[in-house]
Design brief:
This protein is an alpha+beta fold. It is built from six helices and six strands. Helix 1 crosses helix 6 and helix 2 packs antiparallel against helix 3. The radius of gyration is 15 Å and the shape is globular.
Length: about 150
């Protein structure tokens, strides 16, 4: 799968980072990410777990809406080192708290199925899971497009 090649180098870079030894996984997704970064679990196992996981996104307003109302809240977008927009998502509420304190305009957190967020991710936007954490994942916009195509949502 092409998408796996797009993120494999990120895991290879993280494997050499000894700071993952101090990371305490709080759920199955975090356990898979942790072990993948140590080289003990395949990238495809992480993607499989991610697709069935709940994740947290931060918004600049209340992301809930009454039936028939338009959603105006925007999710937290960061830029990759290449300047690409990346949707910031988190593996738990606890992992999102530091960002809601750093980016006070994005203090509304919402836990949702990853697949729901993936379906709504527009073309040209990548994903960053647990930005700034020792255990996370970056997926380029091309990787997101490929994942959506593999799921039949492209």
């Amino acid at each position: 799968m092409r998408m796996l090649r797009l993120i494999r180098s990120v895991f290879a870079r993280w494997r050499s980072d000894s700071s993952t030894d101090q990371f305490a996984p709080q759920n199955e997704l975090e356990r898979r990410l942790y072990h993948a970064q140590r080289g003990d679990v395949s990238t495809s196992a992480v993607i499989s777990e991610l697709k069935q996981s709940q994740v947290v996104a931060l918004f600049n307003g209340d992301p809930t809406m009454a039936k028939g109302m338009r959603l105006n809240a925007q999710p937290l977008l960061l830029n990759s080192s290449d300047g690409e927009p990346m949707l910031a998502i988190f593996t738990s509420i606890e992992r999102s708290k530091i960002w809601s304190q750093k980016q006070t305009d994005f203090s509304f957190g919402m836990q949702v199925p990853f697949e729901w967020l993936l379906r709504g991710t527009v073309s040209g936007v990548g994903l960053v899971i647990n930005p700034g954490s020792t255990v996370g994942l970056e997926m380029s916009p091309a990787g997101v497009t490929q994942l959506k195509a593999n799921a039949g949502w492209a």
